[in-house]
Amino acid sequence: MGVDRPGLDWPLEESLAELERLAQTDGAQVVATCTQRLKRPVAKTYVGTGKAAEIAELAHELEAGVVIFDEELTPSQQANLERVVGKNIKVIDRTALILDIFASHAKTKEGRLQVRLAQNQYLLPRLRGMWSHLVTEQTRGGIGSRFGQGESQLEVDRRLVRKRIAMLQEELRQLERRRATQAKSRHEAGVYRVSLVGYTNAGKSTLLNALTDSSVYVRDELFATLDPTTRSLELPEGKKITLTDTVGFVQKLPTMLVEAFKSTLAEAREANLLLLVVDASDKNANRHIQAVLDILQELGAQDLPRVLVYNKCDLLTREELAQLRQAHPDAVCISASGGMGIDALTYRIAKEATRLDSTLTVQVPYDQGKIIQMIHERCRIIHEEYAAEGYGATVCANQQMSAVLAPYVM
Q: Hey, which bits of 62-122 come out as E strands?
């Protein structure tokens, strides 16, 4: 069910088509789609009274088990709609659907904790009214009738959910500290970090496999990857970097999910370079790019260097591909599954990774063994010699190593 109203970022038909894809990803079969044109959502039931009754009738006629709204419903709107539709049919919104998909796809401990946190944050304001039948039994007049058992149970439930949220947040903070320590180690080691970001199902995992010859899980469905996967890649000139595949984005991605997944999405914020992967064959490609940029801004990663990568270009005609290259001359056009353009992308990554590198000639005394070891581990050695005065080398070094080697430059 979708409402067409002024000022929508996406055409309603496109948004509902994506909602249908999300429903199918979650194992549902979509049997009908309803729309209504409104200036603004109705406060009580989101849609008009007549439309709500029409939805109820259609759901019963088609023996549907769930009605999904494209926008996030308030707790009272959801409760009112469930009363209209009937207790045997669930009423959920896009947020609940995405949370359910995330719950089924999370594999790691951190991923499951993040999903549970978002689910509990979503559930907390919706506990109201779940114990109303108990309130009715306890409030039939007399002193103390305003303090029924149901209200007490509701408060108990709220406390339990708040406690659960606090516990999950603490567990995630511990994992985040561990992740920050790992990130610090990588930074101190001078490892160049590249993160793949993009709309869900743009082909990021396939691209990671193509670049690193890995076998990361790939499937043609939304949110197939939730947990970040990092692989190492040695560039043609010998420089070693890391590539990280991150969770895919989607328009109207629930704020609570962005918050819950911030430690995971921090992989994007801490990267040296972002590869913004786009499905070139999707007619909403430009909207997908904007949705990704909006979330990157939420994360504080909007100013990081990035390369626009158009994937699935093998699905375009020759004319469409020429137009794409003309419109985006700085972008790299590839097909991760077919291998097209992978060498060109590797060259572009290498160019970005070495943009700030310097070529230095150094001489290091032999008693500085740690520095010599760092040169071998973190620099690309062009020439080296062992002289009586010390270890001499001409190396290509990043900014961090250039600073370390400054006292030894010839």
A: 66-69, 90-93
HSE-up of 163 (CA within 13 Å, CB side)? 6
Provide the pairing of β-strand 306-311 with 273-279: parallel
Q: Confirm if 379 and 394 have CB atoms less than 8 A apart.
A: no
d(CA 121, CA 137): 29
- Contact (CB, 8 A) for 154 and 131: yes
Continuous H helices in 189-316: 204-212, 255-260, 262-269, 285-299
Do the strands 66-69 and 35-37 form a parallel or antiparallel pair, or are they unpaired?
Answer: unpaired
Tokens of 376: 């071998």
Beta carbons within 10 angstroms of residue 108's beta carbon: 14
Q: Would you say 200 and 291 are in contact if contact means Cβ atoms under 8 Å apart?
A: no
Extract the tokens encoding 240.
């070693």
- The Cα 177–Cα 200 span in angstroms is 27
Q: How far is CA 8 from the centre of its chain?
A: 22
Paired sense of beta strands 229-234 and 240-245, if any = antiparallel
> Quick check: 208 and 243 in contact, CB under 8 A?
yes
Could you give the CA distance from residue 138 to residue 140 in angstroms, rounded to a whole number? Answer: 6
Contact 243, 216 (CB under 8 A): no
Beta strands in 334-404 (DSSP E): 358-364, 380-387, 390-397
**What are the CA-CA distances from residue 316 to residues 277, 282, 311, 322, 342 (Å)?**
16, 10, 10, 9, 17
Other CB atoms within a 10 A radius of the CB of residue 351 amount to: 11
**Can you give the length of the chain in residues?**
410
In tens, the pLDDT along 79-136 reads 899 999 987 889 999 988 988 888 887 777 877 888 888 888 888 888 764 444 444 4
3-state SS, residue 82: helix
**Closest-CA residue to 259 (of 160, 161, 115):** 115
Which tokens hold the place of 222? 């939304």
Q: The whole model's pTM is what? A: 0.74
